[in-house]
Specification:
Radius of gyration: 20 Å
Order of helices and strands: EEHEHEHEHEHEEEHHHHHHHEE
Shape: globular
Number of helices: 12
Amino acid sequence: MPTITLIPEENKRKDYKIRIGKGIIKQIPKYLKKLHYSKYVIVTDMTVRKLYGIKLQKALIENDLDVELLSFLSGEKSKNLKTIETLLDKMLGLGCDRNTCILALGGGVVGDIAGFLASTFMRGINFIQIPTTLLSMADSSIGGKTGVNTKSGKNLIGAFHQPVTVFVDIETLSTLPENELKNGYAEIIKMATIRNKSLFKFLEKNNDKILKKDMRKLKKTIELSIRIKADIVSRDTKEAGIRMILNYGHTYGHAIEKISKYSILHGYAVSIGMCGINSIAVENKWMKQSHAARIEALLTKAGLPTKLPKKISASSLNKCIKSDKKRVNDIQSYVIVPKIGTAAIVEM
């Protein structure tokens, strides 16, 4: 199985392994035995708790490891400071200390919450990412971004906190609902569009097999996507430069999520956002219509939305964008794609 090593910018931080394979979640107890933490805390949501959380806790106990299992209600609405406060109080009640390690078991919401929890508990403890959705495997579990939402917007409170390691077990995708598969697939399409023309062609050719959960195609797709993100993040760990291109489609996407009260999934919103910024890029002659049409065609083939829902007006969208955390001095940065495989930043 492939192992990808992420080397952070200028080696200022210890690098970490991203392990990808089928069934590797079974290797976790053996790996943790070597780390010698005083306690492990599995943080997950109620859905993943039933699917994998209880089994993982049992496996760790059988390997003589001290482990607790904490969970919260599934969904984006749990990604708030109240959830963090509840989890912090529970960890303190369980006697967790600075030598405790958090295991983030689940999708993007779990990873964001567990990572932020780890960054704040006793001013920062270690954590391990164990993503179980396509979105978290290919994107959100990589790079150390953590955070929660507020009434003002998405991910406005958070921290950069790198995991000790990441375990990507593609076998967990077998239980993933179709809408969640497409949710993650949108981020993979984004990754290919901004950085890898060959991956984009691969997605065009293998779209149907990927959506049907062909494990061989999925594994290759996830691995290539991770390599793209790992390369970008290693060059810019704090999003001060090149890492900004990962926000392609996200300025509009985050606003759409917020306005819909998170009833629209992240990947679906980003899909609409990509097409939205493409239209502006074509209008300003920053991008050819043929490239925009090709991107929209792949998103449509993947079963993802490309138009703004009727219930969301353009004026409400623009108003929401003004609270985006990347807005500085009333100037908003947008990621555009001059041609597939390349990206640039424009300020408006």
